[in-house]
Amino acid sequence: MIIIPAIDIKNGKCVRLLQGRMDAETVFSLDPSAMAERWADEGAEIIHIVDLDGAVEKQPKNLDAIKKIISAVNIPVQVGGGIRDHQTIEKYIDLGIKKVIIGTEAIKNPGMVKDACKQFPGCIVVGIDAREGMAAIEGWTQTTKTSAIDLAREFEDCGVAAINFTDIHRDGMQTGPNIEETRKLAQAVSIPVVASGGVSTLEDIYNLLPLEPEGVVGVITGKALYSGTLDLRQAISAARKF
């Protein structure tokens, strides 16, 4: 299982939100690229970036900061937030982004996601953010009537590289990941699943590791790394020994 450090960018700064609320932020660094370098130095295999302003504005808003991260590290970078069309996907791929995460459009325009998988094979990740099992969109501001599992099943056999599954109630709260919902989603599809939301300590990593045979291939963690309750090197070591 891969341990993936998250860098959430708002107004060019590295921040973390509570449950996705834009008015509940903590600034951890004024230089997101420096944070990316730190995580790369500590053994990260991929960096996860979210353009928080982009998620709200429905288009990339922190391109300068993202470009600096790409230049600063020699490991793959994936990005999500505000990706609504082929032009934006192509722009990110041309910049050197290895995987592009599509969230809202996966519900609003699944055909676009499927076409993108054909145009950019191996590069498209579907981000499914769930509130009490139902998918949320528009930067988590709207909860739909589509279940996370039904949404995931929509993309079977179309070339999606992975599903990033976030439990919104757990995100930034450090209350532990939603093991059962993550397991259910992974069991429902053949697409690799990356867990996100709620990781607080090394114990949470150990709790997730048994899901690897079910198809959970990675875990994204942010606030725990920044607050110091989780050590990235230790987490990577634990995952590799499993």
Give a verbal description of the structure.
It is globular, with a radius of gyration of 16 Å. The mean pLDDT is 93. The longest helix has 10 residues, at 32-41. It has an eight-stranded parallel barrel, surrounded by six helices. The protein is built from eleven helices and twelve strands. It has a single domain (2-241), classed as Aldolase class I (TIM Barrel, Alpha-Beta Barrel), CATH 3.20.20.70. With 242 residues, it is an alpha/beta fold. One of its GO terms (biological process) is L-tryptophan biosynthetic process. Pathway: Amino-acid biosynthesis; L-histidine biosynthesis; L-histidine from 5-phospho-alpha-D-ribose 1-diphosphate: step 4/9. It holds the Pfam family His_biosynth. It catalyses: 1-(5-phospho-beta-D-ribosyl)-5-[(5-phospho-beta-D-ribosylamino)methylideneamino]imidazole-4-carboxamide = 5-[(5-phospho-1-deoxy-D-ribulos-1-ylimino)methylamino]-1-(5-phospho-beta-D-ribosyl)imidazole-4-carboxamide.
